[in-house]
Amino acid sequence: MEMSVVNLFNQFQSLGAHLDALNENIEPQFLQMAVNFEDCRKKWLLAGEELVSCKEVLAKVETERGALEVKLKHARNQVDVEIRRRQKAEAVYEKLERQVQLIRELLIAENNGSSVHLSEEQRSALAFLSTHSQAAQDAKTNLNSSRRLSRVEESISLLSDISYDQTDDSLDWDSSVMKNVRLRKRPKRRSSRKLTDAPPQAVKKPRSTGRTSERNNESIVAKTTITLPASGGIEAVSTIETVPYWTRSRRRSALADTTTTDHYETASEAPSKPVSETPVQFQTPQIKGGKKHHFIPKTVIKSEFCAPCGRRTKFGKIYLRCQECRIVTHPECRDNCPLPCNPSALETPIRGTETTLADFAPTSSPRIPALVIYCIKEIERRGLHEVGLYRVSGHERQVKELKEKLVRGKTLPSLNKVEDINVITGVLKDFLRNLPEPLLTFRLNKVFMEAAEIQDDDNSLALLYQAISELPPPNRDTLACLMIHLHKVSQSMDTKMDVSNLARVFGPTLVGHAVPDPDPMTILHDTSRQPRIVERLLSIPGSYWSRFAHPDNVDMETPRNTDTPSHKVSILGPVTTPEHQMLPKTPSSSSLSQRVMQTLTSTTIFGSKSKATSASNRQGSFFASPQLK
Amino acid sequence: MPEQSNDYRVVVFGAGGVGKSSLVLRFVKGTFRDTYIPTVEDTYRQVISCDKSVCTLQITDTTGSHQFPAMQRLSISKGHAFILVYSITSRQSLEELKPIYQQILAIKGSVESIPIMLVGNKSDETAQREVETKVGETQATSWKCAFMETSAKTNSNVKELFQELLALEKKRDMSLSIDGKRSGKQKRADKLKGKCSVM
């Protein structure tokens, strides 16, 4: 018993000792824990407070953003209104202009007909006319040309560092620049050849005789070259050559040039302006399509196919070959040659794999490969009623052969010899698909993809515009040309290829992937998104594209007459260019899409465009113009 | 691939506009649309019976305006069976199939064990026929594959086409009707019964 008690006691004591040992450390630990808890609590508190403040800031910013958005919307609306007003004014302007021009034409014709040798009278009459036309422009159209011009000039000089050639753009205020170009281009080339004889001739010719002889020569086949040594350092070299081939258009241009002469000598109030009277150019009846061919006659030794008619040139006969694009034609077919002349890099592609689009494209604008233009021309000529155009594929071998001919051949094979239109579409698709880099480039692939993903039309388009502006010029011009063409195809019901169908077909062809060798997953992923991009691109109006595809409107190669009185299309050139430049900087680009588009549709200088863009000196000049009306 | 055991992939090839999608849609949905919409790539699934259990028949409808060989190679390497469609109204569309066949041959090594159907679609458009049935048959013999003329529009031979294709697969025992052949049999039985009762 005792023993057990002792035993128990011992046990109890040992337990107590254990307990003590355990209790010994617990208190400080508890304390530490309590402290930790307290720390933690404080931190939480702090975090909570921070959160609240952050939320407040966020809310504030959000409301600010809302306010700004509303403002933006207002601004946009205003811009819209302005643009619409401007367009209206522009339309009225154009109409009146045309009327004045008509009167001018009549008067000039009368003058020439009745008073052949009365140079003084004539001159005075014409002087009156030209002043009148200017006055009319100023007064009737509510567009103060001089004021506006100076404004534009400002902006141009400000932006002159941009890749586009502003000074060139600014030349061609009138919508008929293409014609303008033609009038000038040829003389330019020719002048080099005829430099020796032209100036003396020009000097010799009294103003009126020059003019009258021109008129008289109209019916006769004659060759009259007039060079106008312009005052004020402007080489308004308007050489006129009435050659049997250039029948109507030539004569017209001659007329145009004569009026210029008159203007020069009589209306000396504008000595520094190489005023090539715009109204005159309106009437130049030339086919749209841009640059003309530069034919030189040759004797046939090796028979070749005439591009327009497809027949062979016969041995020993004369045929014409364009020096620039090497197109071959019968003299009588020359008017049917596809325009514009594409100074082709046809033969340039170096043998080897790495040929980019730029290698196929000519160096002058529009930088569209000749192959693309010829295929499109032919497809538009006879393919617009073909069911499944671009969908149905042509014979693979024929496609390969034709492509080879087009890419490597020295001369252009005449496409009307190709029976199956699907072979031609195949060539075009194959060409675009097998470029080392897709048309929309690897670099911008992602940008385009993202742009097309955006649900909001405006934002999406704005991003697209931006991406397009970043494309290399050959790609951009070619894309523009294609888009215009595909518009036409989609509008032709017979093809059954509406926009979405074309987009499906052209998605992989144009967009491609972001890397040269995509893995299968990327392919699958991209395939569904590619058509969306093309569809978006096709939703951009043709007027936007035509600026790239037919930049003859905004010609970049004639650095003469820096300010023609009439200002219509090409104003776009300088104005939209800054736009592209500014795009990346703009915080919200959504409004840009509309703006860019509208500029292009309205074909006027576009003042308010820079409204939303970051503040700059330009704004003033841009802004003011819409209010000029 | 884990799905391999359960998925049977059929890939439909052919030139643009020959009616690949129409065939597939007719088979899968039983409808025919007269619209003209090119396909980028669509995949349809249907449950069929296979080796006394069910598996998914996956029909890949490819683009006809053949774009990138990479895509084609991918489809071929993934596919178990192939339907090569041409239009009897276009000789060209038959020509178009040749490179595709070569491609299949190159990727699969041999076509011996691979079910391939050569299909002349649009058999209803006899007026515009450019490819005689004989030509198709000859082509099929030289390719060692089966041949059939179909019309998605009039629904002729469409179901048969797929049936035959599945019958060509020797590695598995497959049939179109789900729930084994039971449902088919039942239907037939029902029909018979119906007739009986009338009698």
From TrEMBL, chain A:
Residues 184-193 have a biased composition (Basic residues). Residues 58-106 form a coiled coil. GO terms for biological process: cell differentiation; mitotic cytokinesis; mitotic spindle midzone assembly; monoatomic ion transport; Rho protein signal transduction; spermatogenesis. Pfam families: C1_1, RhoGAP. The lineage of its organism: Eukaryota, Metazoa, Chordata, Craniata, Vertebrata. Residues 550-560 have a biased composition (Basic and acidic residues). Residues 184-224, 252-289, 550-595, 608-629 are annotated as: Disordered. Its main location: membrane. Residues 355-545 form the Rho-GAP domain. This is Rac GTPase-activating protein 1. GO terms for cellular component: acrosomal vesicle; centralspindlin complex; cleavage furrow; midbody; nucleus; spindle midzone. Residues 292-341 form the Phorbol-ester/DAG-type domain. It is a peripheral membrane protein. InterPro entries: C1-like_sf (IPR046349), PKC_DAG/PE (IPR002219), Rho_GTPase_activation_prot (IPR008936), RhoGAP_dom (IPR000198). GO terms for molecular function: GTPase activator activity; lipid binding; zinc ion binding. SMART domains: C1 (SM00109), RhoGAP (SM00324). Signal peptide: none annotated.
UniProtKB/TrEMBL annotation, chain B:
SMART domains: RAB (SM00175), RAS (SM00173), RHO (SM00174). GO terms for molecular function: GTP binding; GTPase activity. It is a lipid-anchor. PROSITE patterns: RAB, RAS, RHO. SUPFAM superfamilies: P-loop containing nucleoside triphosphate hydrolases. InterPro entries: P-loop_NTPase (IPR027417), Small_GTP-bd (IPR005225), Small_GTPase (IPR001806), Small_GTPase_Ras-type (IPR020849). Gene3D superfamilies: P-loop containing nucleotide triphosphate hydrolases (3.40.50.300). It is found in: Cell membrane. Residues 177-193 have a biased composition (Basic and acidic residues). GO terms for biological process: signal transduction. NCBIfam families: small_GTP (TIGR00231). Belongs to the small GTPase superfamily. Di-Ras family. Displays low GTPase activity and exists predominantly in the GTP-bound form. This is DIRAS family GTPase 1. It comes from Poecilia formosa (Amazon molly). The lineage of its organism: Eukaryota, Metazoa, Chordata, Craniata, Vertebrata.
